[in-house]
Amino acid sequence: KMAQSALFIIFGGTGDLAYRKLYPSLFRLYEKGYLKDDFAVIGTARRPWTDEHYHEVVMNAIADDGHESDRTNSELAHKFASHFYYQSHNVNDTEHYVALRNLADKLDAKYNLKGNRIYYLAMAPRFFGTIAGHLKSEKLITDHGYNRLIIEKPFGRDLQTAKDLNDAISAAFSEEQIYRIDHYLGKEAIQSIAALRFGNEVIGSLWNKAHIDNIQITLAESLGVEERAGYYETAGALRDMVQNHILQIVSLLTMEEPKAYTASELRDRKVEALRNIKIYSPEEALQNFVRGQYGEDADHEQLDYRHEEGTDENSQIETFVAGKLETESPSLAGVPIYVRTGKRLAQKSTQISIVFKDLKQNIFANSESDTKLAQNVLTLFIEPDQGYRFDINVKSGEQSYGVMPIHLDYHKSAAKKAKVPEAYEKLIHDALDGNRTNFAHWHEVAQAWRIVDVVRKTWDKQDADFPNYVSGTMGPEAAEELLRRDHRTWVYNP
Ligand code: BG6
Fold it and tell me: Mind telling me which HAMAP family this protein's record contains (predicted)?
């Protein structure tokens, strides 16, 4: 492993994301030697912080994240924090970019950074265009190293605003320089989908419409909106989780086999997969998508969404979505994909189930015990549990010849899980490496908006009957009905 030379310029350096994810991730890369002497970080934001204060913040961030005790005051943490510089910054003020460039050039020489720069926009997207434009016009972009722009969602609120945003940043950065973060793509178990599908004869040969009955994806959260009502009231679950995380997972599950596991092959197959998802008419959208908003829990201890801090008392924002997607991909055409996500559900769990078809013939049907055969189901546990379960049928172990289902189970141990790099660490590492495999391409983002825009616009025309689910359950009854009408049920049913 080679230590990298790079300057990080973090816009939104005083923010929550930087504190909770970026500083700890950078530290872990430092601990592992992937960052060593030749790196520096400039944090910018409006607040007037000193470098000393910034160092304290960075060390606190490391400590708060710490699995190991005493990381804060370790010599390593001090040394790490000394690479951080703070520059107070107003994103609209041209002069401030000049100051930023001067500091960047100084650090480039001091730390031997070879002109490599990573601009991390950890702030509201309405500033992305302004920042990108100034980085170019004020010549922060170097010509002797790489320049990469990492941006966080939301990439717009519909296709049109996403396009505007993309045009604005594309005026300064090429697609190859843009790294759109979808942190689900940094999760080990999501990255493992390709290995599972294309690294196993048994699974690969069954992954098609002849054998798969339906696919189910659940991203359940137990937490409510927390302190993020300001953002959430402008988003809702469809934009917050379906447009990005869920559709990225759908593309990985339904894409055709890439020729090789490379960024460009993968991107082409994923774009194809998303283009194969049917765009619904407004009527179809209403039939195939369900929205929900949480009420109080059964014990009346948790607030309903409309009484959370910062939400509108008549809020029409959905905290739950369930939907049925249809694909026209050659190998999976006709296999329904059921997706759901929501806040304040029964448990935090992300899981994917591949439900296989019933056997065409059941030779045990007439045996003494009148055996019904359960469907084979392959479940991928993404988080917090990481593992796999395969449900198969075996003899029941009684005198008569009965057949019963059992689970083949594999779950990563806590020790193994602790070794898996956290999503942000993985993605920052990839960005340093210039590896775009696990970042979202513009074509993917645009197509995902086309898919959800119809649903959004249809919903926006009608008032919802909210709240419509009890906190701590798995969402509104209509989400169960969505499968029941197809004579199916959700596999995950806590
Ligand atoms: C984020 C959403 O993208 O993902 C949040 O904005 C959500 O609303 C979060 O809570 C869930 O991520 P994870 O990794 O905890 O499943």
Answer: G6PD
